[in-house]
Amino acid sequence: MQVESEQLKAFLLDAKLIEEEDFERARKIAQKNSKKIDDVLISEGLVPQDALIKMKAYILGIPFVDLEKEKIEEDILKIIPEPIARSNNIVAFRKKGDDLEVAMLDPDDLRMIEFIKKTSNFRILPRLTTPESIKNVLQQYQKTLQAEFGDIIKKEADGIKVTKEREGFTEEEVNDLKKIAEDLPVVRIVDTLLKHAILERSSDVHIEPTKKDVIVRYRIDGVLRDAMTLPKQAASGIVARIKVLSNLKLDEHRLPQDGRFKIETEDYKYSVRVSILPVFDGEKIVLRLLSETAEAYTLEQLGLWDKSLEDIQSNLKKPVGMILVTGPTGSGKTTTLYSMMEILNCPGVNISTIEDPVEYRMPRINQTQVNPKIGLTFASGLRALVRQDPNVIMVGEIRDSETASLAINAALTGHLVLSTLHTTSAAGSMPRLIDMKAEPFLIASTLNVILAQRLVRRLCEEKEKYSLNDAEIKNLRKYCDLDRIMGILEGEKLIKPKQSIKDIVFYRPKASKSSPEGYKGRIGIYEVLPVTETIKELIVKEATSDQIQAQAQKEGMRTMIEDGFIKAVQGVTTIEEVLRVIAE
């Protein structure tokens, strides 16, 4: 029951989901890379995954099911054992009499359907769904963090040994710490914390000792939330376990330490960055989780579109100069740089990077890790990279005047340089570089484009509609020029001519079983500032960031809040989310 390519094309064109030339382009890519046309249509961002699967279900005459709207009882879910469900992407979600409805990605898998029929004694009714739906339901097999820790603590936490902290440790005490780190209760606690963090798509895990207990918090979609409270006696064992995994000094608890380790299972592969900091009640641990199997996003998937996307794409074609990505820590700057490098990465281009740390491994790209302990800094690494005959150089961050000077010289001498800078806006980058002792005329000569960004949480498909009241409109005017935004929305045909802001439909999150807060994932909001001739003149005159911003807006630059407002009107995110990250 496979859908033929021509049949799929006819239905997609009829539904106006794709243009014929885009479909043919996807077909050529699929044939060249021996891929399915479906996979290419999704990866190239030509057809939304949900829409494509619904269309296939319609063509095949198989019902489509959105599992987020289904309340699945535990006894039904467990008709199909977790290992089988996970390895075959199939879940049971509803039964009626002798019929069992199963959601799957491949309704042609007759072998699996027959196997479940024999083992369950039900008549199997296959339904088509999305990979994301299956993934969400598979999480229901897992115990909640609270329940799993309840079992561990009830059975074993009392058996965790406690070592008192003091100014120094004897050799015998260090050996005791090693034994504690290998104790089964401690190993289970750390493994369970990490497993649930990964399942809940957490980017960071905070383990914080207090006077009476240990608080564990996860950062999910950019927001920190409490995950678990552990007994105080678990603290020394957890710290020892993570130090052993990260190859850090067990007997050092007065100085900060940094390290890393890897987690690898059949389902995922993560690199974990470790930061340990002495605090009043012990040692605080922060773990940054970086997926090693994650694929680079396209610029469109990151949230760039229209003129902003065109400005970035045109500047990536330039062989020399500098592209800067700015924003605070955790705003997705590195992910954006990796997406740019993915576009540039081809056999005819030599790309070299100096990073701290190397967050994602990329094939055919020469990635170097900063190591200040042996004198390998951004500046010294950049000097070495220039001698490696690169076409493109990526510098993880411009932190000081030496790195800024070297990056500018590299851009002047025939290289395309990509880097990040910590500033709050795109226009603030030029004064920041001048503060780093970079010459204004050199900045004007080398900078091609600057992109500033923040990350906002995405709304789930189910959301509530509402309109702004007078108080909310008054509050919005404190943050942005609403008249200018209304003009942009009208120009993009997102609202009717002369429509009042009170008549615009906005969206609020709606809680669901799979997403209690109504958000899932994140998307960027951006401002892209091309360095035009007029902007160059302002840089040479050492104009303020406000003057540069005003000129850029005259030339058509959209600010982050304006980009966020457009995404809020489109139902991608909320006004509250945009204001939250802009205020931060």
Protein architecture, described:
It is a single chain. By secondary structure, the protein is α/β, with parallel strands linked by helices. The two termini are 52 Å apart. Helix 9 packs antiparallel against helix 11 (184-199). The model has no long low-confidence stretch (mean pLDDT 87). 41% of the residues lie in helices and 22% in strands. Strands 12-11-13-14-10-15-18 form a seven-stranded mixed sheet, with helices on both faces. Strands 6-5-4-9-8-7 form a six-stranded antiparallel sheet, covered by helices on one side. The radius of gyration is 27 Å and the shape is globular. Helix 17 (401-412) links the parallel strand 13 (392-395) and strand 14 (416-421). It has three domains: 5-135, Type II secretion system, protein E, N-terminal domain (GMP Synthetase, Chain A, domain 3, 2-Layer Sandwich), CATH 3.30.300; 142-291, Beta-Lactamase, CATH 3.30.450; 299-457 and 522-558, P-loop containing nucleotide triphosphate hydrolases (Rossmann fold, 3-Layer(aba) Sandwich), CATH 3.40.50.300. It is built from 25 helices and 18 strands.
Give a quick set of tags describing it.
584 residues, GMP Synthetase, Chain A, domain 3, Rossmann fold, 3 domains, 7-stranded mixed sheet, globular
